[in-house]
Here is the input.
Amino acid sequence: MGEDRTATMREAVSAHVRDGDVVALEGFTHLIPVAAGHEIIRQGRRDLTLVRMTADIVFDQMLAAGVARKLISSFVGNSAVGSLHELRRRVEDADPEPLEFEEYSHYGLLGRYLAGAQGLPFYPLRSYAGSDLPRVNPNIRTVRSPFDDGTTVHAVPPLNPDVAILHAQRADAAGNTQVWGMLGGQQEVAFAARKVIVVVEEVVAPEVIRSDPNRTLIPEFVVDAVVECPRGAHPSYVQGYYERDGAFYRAWPDISRDPERLRQWLDEWVYDLADHSEYLAKLGEQHWDDLTPRSALSAPVDYGAARD
Here is the structure.
């Protein structure tokens, strides 16, 4: 059995997230580490560079709390609903202060993680042909093939976040982490980052992890802390545990459009609460009635084993 890396959210953020860090909070619309974002707000971190392929509500909240000076992303928006108004104020009007914004395509940002994970000087890709992004982002450059055909493609630099925070369904205490459903770039980010905090719905026995090894996306040797935080991705969803809280997403544009209302929301739902358990208690157990999915078990797999 590996080292016990379990910690509370407060302990993990305090130990591994520093002012000025590059912090990736990933999860591609699914498994968004919202509770971790709230804990970063509570601990008053400043001057962070936030990285996320689909920057959405929790980033609007973190920007409103003043934790970040820069955003690296490949999509920003309140998915299928509307805008992130705090982000728009920062980018369009430098209100209350400017936000440096570095934009890629999804594959371009994933390529940065892949280059970081593999120790490569850059990651080549074709997907910027015909795009205006290379014109506005000087980090998207061209490179000529060293082989005879002389093909020119675009390239992006490696990205090694100081810390990655990743939500998942389950892990053992050592950090062997299992994910299912939409995977996004969880594994690539984990291998690219210098430190990794995994936040899980439940910590399970190593025997559970070993019984289904192919679901282990993040191995313990890249993990620095394991935080058990049930419903820690709300209002996003966790496959098999709870569904996306559509009402919350629909309510957010009216909250974030008004800076004063947004700050009141942060006071009520983040600053005035000690941790995520108080957030859940404030929501109430009845809130989850419509968010609890029906059971849909996969068929068992027989991995086989050597005979004694």
